[in-house]
Design goal:
279 residues, alpha+beta, nine-stranded mixed sheet, three-stranded antiparallel sheet
Length: 279
């Protein structure tokens, strides 16, 4: 266990190579200096979790704003009176879940979010986990030749690469399922805090390498997705009610496991942009 007496919290590693449980603080305790310290912790742990958190929607927004500027999600207008908080729901009668494929949040936007906050409001008795993959470790597991190739590539991302049912899972869904967003980003992310390199191309939103057809691109995208999913790179989070997780989208991929049919799962999400706010 890592003990940080200066800040009054401890971090218990939850996996051999990623994930940390923060003990000793509540969401309401996190001010700007502590948020800056937690950003540094995320460079190492990639994902941080806080258990048994009791806080209001206003507290949640205050927390997110300590990390940067709240990023609007284009497919939902948020919960009543709090448009920045996106609620993701799977009811007992629904079979398909939301975000079931490996992805980095909203890479189809010109400015994808850097941090994601997710809070469990209702959890199924069993199942409904989220699995994270250490994209930095995945990148460094590749051959030097493939690393060099990927660092020279850009990727076209789109919001409609796969069929989705966003409207069935988002409270106050806005727009249309036919709405499409597209953006181009590097295949490899160089983190602005220290330059860590991580694989940014992802299964759910990657359409093709820039200058290539989708048919030409798919074999390599498929290979990289299989690499991301390998268990030695992953950390599986089992949710509890009132648990908060935050992660750095520049360093991890994630997906939601769809194994709880007949049960209710409700999650509140806020995404944040950190650009221009690096310490």
């Amino acid at each position: 266990m890592d003990t940080i007496t200066q800040w009054g919290y401890e971090i218990l590693p939850t996996g051999s190579h990623m994930g940390g449980e923060v003990r000793g603080i509540q969401v309401r305790d996190i001010d700007a200096p502590l948020a800056a310290q937690l950003k540094n912790e995320l460079l190492h742990y990639k994902v941080l979790i806080l258990r048994n958190q009791c806080f209001s929607h206003d507290d949640y927004l205050t927390l997110a704003r300590q990390f940067g500027e709240i990023a609007k999600y284009p497919f939902a207008s948020g919960i009543e009176d709090y448009p920045e908080i996106v609620q993701i729901v799977k009811t007992p009668t629904q079979r398909q879940n939301f975000s079931g494929k490996w992805h980095v949040d909203s890479t189809y936007l010109e400015t994808p979010p850097d941090y994601t906050f997710l809070t469990a409001r209702e959890t199924p008795p069993l199942g409904g986990d989220t699995v994270f993959s250490n994209a930095e470790a995945v990148f460094h597991s590749l051959s030097e030749g493939l690393q060099a190739l990927l660092e020279s590539q850009e990727v076209e991302f789109a919001s409609d690469v796969h069929a989705t049912q966003r409207g069935q899972h988002l409270t106050n869904f806005s727009g249309s399922e036919a709405d499409t967003y597209r953006a181009v980003h590097p295949a490899v992310m160089r983190h602005p805090r220290g330059g860590k390199r991580a694989l940014y191309i992802n299964e759910e939103h990657a359409l093709a390498f820039k200058g290539m057809t989708r048919e030409e691109s798919q074999p390599l995208i498929r290979y990289l997705t299989e690499r991301i999913a390998q268990s030695e790179f992953t950390f599986r989070l089992t949710w509890e009610k009132d648990m908060v997780a935050l992660w750095d989208n520049r360093l991890v991929h994630h997906h939601a496991v769809n194994d709880y049919h007949g049960a209710l799962r409700v999650m509140d999400r806020i995404t944040v942009n950190d650009r221009g706010l690096e310490a």
